[in-house]
Design a protein that fits this description.
single chain, mainly alpha, Cytochrome Bc1 Complex, Chain D, domain 2, 7 helices, 51% helix
């Protein structure tokens, strides 16, 4: 081999070895960050939600919040168009068992003899997604923890 070809060949071989060795020992590729899920996970920690409730909250935001509002207060952006208005979950959920909630999610409110305005989601959601929504509704039905009274201001 001529002397002018040896140097480029050595450089190319050296680069190939460096690239090959550089990739070794790195284990699994870095986990892709999901900013929206990161926000939900942080809120879940702050709110004391389980994993299922956190996923249910995400689904609630996707399917239910337009009518029911962010916290289930019946005050979503579309609520003013509806008659009857969506219920306030903090009071209405405690009057029915979880099987009733599941029936409404799967078959809509008409499936329990109420207004047909809440659509059936049973064809859009899997059974585990419905379980997660029910878990989140359970969290919404819990009474809010009592607030700590603030310390009195020091006298000057």
């Amino acid at each position: 081999m001529t002397r002018c070809l040896r140097l480029p060949l050595r450089v190319a071989l050296g680069l190939a070895v460096a690239v090959a060795l550089g990739g070794c020992g790195r284990g699994r590729p870095a986990k892709r960050s999901e900013p929206l899920m990161d926000v939900f996970r942080k809120q879940a920690q702050e709110e004391g939600l389980t994993r299922a409730q956190t996923e249910g909250k995400r689904l609630f935001g996707q399917y239910c919040v337009t009518c029911h509002g962010d916290a289930g207060g019946g005050d979503g952006q579309n609520a003013y168009n509806l008659d009857p208005k969506p219920p306030v979950f903090q009071t209405s959920l405690t009057t029915h068992p979880r099987t009733y909630w599941r029936q409404i999610i799967e078959g809509g409110t008409a499936s329990v003899g109420r207004s047909p305005l809440c659509p059936p989601w049973g064809h859009n959601l899997t059974a585990s997604q419905i379980d997660e929504l029910v878990a989140y509704l359970d969290a919404l039905a819990r009474p809010a923890p009592p607030t700590q009274p603030s310390a009195p201001a020091p006298k000057s």
